[in-house]
Design a protein that fits this description.
alpha/beta; two-stranded antiparallel sheet; 333 residues; Glycerol-3-phosphate dehydrogenase [NAD(+)] (chains A, B); EC 1.1.1.8 (chains A, B); NAD (chains A, B); homodimer
């Protein structure tokens, strides 16, 4: 896309709840911003509604997704399109909002059909912005700030602040590692240890996230942890979130019922990312000999596999590493 | 004190709940650490108990403060002493744990009575460590890391991690400014806006705390905000804490009952620091022309004085400053 020469054109791939929310938000911006075409094509995985009507037709008639986002107007410039190829053919900016298991198949179908220079972004989690609750997000980028800023402009609204950071690895590692810390926070909840302890655990978790990310990828920047993908997402995940919730139940059961069992019972098919991420992190720590440096991350895994009791999450006396080597801090412990 | 030549000797000034907790914790360490005398003198503001016995005698007989910390042994090396001058005469490390309004008077009494080179520390808030819940704290210092580390050693236990940072201003500003952010968090609670919004507000608050501290005092370090005095205390204060609680009530009343009124009703004489700190910060912002740079800090004050409605706490659309000037971040908004 010759940014600056022609207008940007956006297509949204997906029309479930979050796809509809994203289309609505984006369309409110493309209608205002001169560098974007007003129209936002939203690809709809076609369904026949109980009324006998096609979902895509229903959306275009009511300007509302009566099945996945009822009661909220999408904006006149959102056009539902059940034909994938047609939906994307004029677009140079694609927004993926399908369940992740469909992405590979969709990409195969799109191969060779896109305009040269087309960019894509993936929105992998839902947010409470359909009802315009204040929220925020971070976009990571590599070198090309202009591209990142254009994407940020597309998403920013008065109730949804989007920032960009030149640190893809940092943004991704924050998104992954926070789920391990949420397990730790959930254990503290299940042990009824109160807010002071929980805050301490979240802080130590953030510290280990930062140190681990920097060891893995030296380009990771401190600032990233002050962005919404860092401290804000960590707080959200440790206050709500399913990793926290299942870990709380695990601790309340004294570790006697496994995470697998609780997950199956509590999440109805959804998966806990924190447990599998803790395992992967542990493998890296063991392989590189860093275990002693990351007591919280290590302990979470050892609790998850039943090697340590849930109460170990607050016992760091035997291994209190000096992370100052990594973080440049003067921390005493 | 000739550290390394003679043993350090600790006196605790105060024997209320938190004074007793501190004495117990410190005594468990002085008993183990070779660089400290075992004995910890605890100055007791003498009282006659309902039994007719003196409080200090009761403490020394039962090794327990039956009035302010019943049911918990202080450790055999804690000696209660009602004579202030006698309690401190051999000490070179003083720990102040009295209510703050007594400090000035006590200091006047101590003037000229202390050994040369005596150091003092003040513990201004209580923590949940009497029952050995996991918690942490940060000690700020200027230049002399050895002194700071000695103090940290005195307080560190397996359930109480103490770190030191060479950043007195940063530690103090964190402690003050977090109360303003807690007001913002409480308003979000009162507006029932959910965890995503609350986390976003806490994150923006942390960002403004950091930027404001660095503008006020250029020696303030980023690392300080990753210590317990930064992100962990902020989380604790925004989850519990009286600033949060009264601000929640303020928002639930639609701003129609003043903070003064709610404070009198809810806190029974305790004072809200957040409201007065917000006012002081606002004066600095106005005086230096920085108001536009700190929408959250400014808005909290304007809401407190009734100039803006509580809902303004999530409306930053009209003033979204680029704090990257200050923080070096690439934030878009």
């Amino acid at each position: 896309m010759e940014n600056g020469h022609a207008k940007n054109r956006v297509a949204v791939i997906g029309s479930g709840n979050w796809g509809s929310v994203a289309s609505r938000l984006i369309a409110s911006n493309t209608a205002k911003l001169p560098s974007f075409h007003d129209e936002v094509r939203m690809w709809v995985f076609e369904e026949i509604l109980p009324t006998g009507k096609k979902l895509s037709e229903s959306i275009n008639q009511a300007n509302e997704n009566c099945k996945y986002l009822p009661g909220i107007k999408l904006g006149a410039n959102v056009i539902a399109d059940p034909d994938l190829e047609n939906a994307v053919k004029d677009a140079n900016m694609l927004v993926f909002v399908t369940p992740h298991q469909f992405v590979e198949d969709i990409c195969k179908k799109l191969a060779g059909k896109l305009r040269p220079g087309t960019e894509a972004i993936s929105l992998i989690k839902g947010m409470e912005i359909a009802v315009e609750k204040f929220s925020e997000a971070t976009i990571g980028y590599k070198k090309d700030k202009e591209v990142a800023t254009r994407w940020a402009k597309l998403f920013t609204t008065p109730y949804f602040l989007v920032s960009v950071v030149e640190d893809i690895e940092g943004v991704e590692l924050c998104g992954t590692l926070k789920n391990v810390v949420a397990i730790a926070a959930g254990l503290v909840d299940g042990l009824d240890m109160g807010n002071n302890t929980k805050a301490a655990i979240m802080r130590i978790g953030l510290r280990e996230m930062r140190a681990f990310s920097k060891l893995l990828s030296p380009t990771v920047r401190d600032n990233t942890f002050f962005e919404s993908c860092g401290v804000a997402d960590l707080i959200t995940t440790c206050l709500g979130g399913r990793n926290r919730r299942v870990a709380e139940a695990f601790a309340r059961n004294g570790g006697k019922r496994s995470f697998d069992e609780l997950e199956a019972e509590m999440l109805h098919g959804q998966k806990l990312q924190g447990v599998s991420t803790a395992k992967e992190v542990y493998e890296v720590l063991t392989y590189r000999g860093w275990q002693e440096l990351f007591p919280l991350l290590s302990t979470v895994h050892e609790i998850c596999i039943g090697q340590l009791p849930p109460t170990s999450i607050v016992e760091y006396s035997e291994h209190t590493p000096n992370l100052s080597i990594i973080s440049g801090s003067n921390a005493y412990y």
